[in-house]
Design brief:
heterodimer; A: 85 residues; alpha+beta; Ubiquitin-like (UB roll); five-stranded mixed beta sheet; 5 strands; B: 156 residues; four-stranded mixed beta sheet; four-stranded antiparallel beta sheet; 4 helices
Amino acid sequence: MKVKILYLASLREQLGKSGEDVEISPATSTVAGLRTLLMARGGSWQMALAQGKALRVAVNQEMAQPTTPVKPGDEIAFFPPVTGG
Amino acid sequence: MPVRIQTKDFDAGAEIAVLRRGNLKVGAVASFIGVCRDANDGTAVTKMTLEHYPGMTERALEKIVSEAKRRWDVMDALVIHRVGELKPTDQIVLVVVTGAHRGEAFAACEFIMDYLKTRAPFWKKEETPQGARWVEARISDDEAAQRWEPPKSSAA
């Protein structure tokens, strides 16, 4: 199944990418699973997405938790804690 | 639209006039304006760039405004947030709340700002004499938002 991933703000700069369509197996069924999958790319992916890094995730433009399910066609955004206002 | 994301500046007086036009029940208008400073964490800031997540930003802000209206007896609310390049003294954000009485209007206005700071997807990047840097989220902002959480029900 295919999902659309976005990388925002400092994360986009660390990864050198603003987004991509990714083919994932049905086994990658949650936000945490997707994060692990991306970290397995190693290098800056491993570093930027490491557990313990302050990271927020939105699924279909709603704030998500590690356990939030990921479905085909979803838009999943990874970004740092927000700093507006 | 109670929520606007824009690059251009805003005129708080004009916005307030529109928001309460013809409403004879309004007895209080509470407002907040966030402004770009020339320093942060002891370092000079010459310029900042505000980025957001189009689509989610509007949804998140509309949700915050709806929640404020649900919690307090207020009439209307407006949020304008600028994005793009800003320099010291520039206005960044405007929140206006109208209501019958000041207590509810003040509280709703502060709630909207506290939730915006922790839940609306905006990010600031500052230009300093040492180069550009992303602003780090503050724990004090999380604490400010947490005080609006409903009290935990106590098992008596």
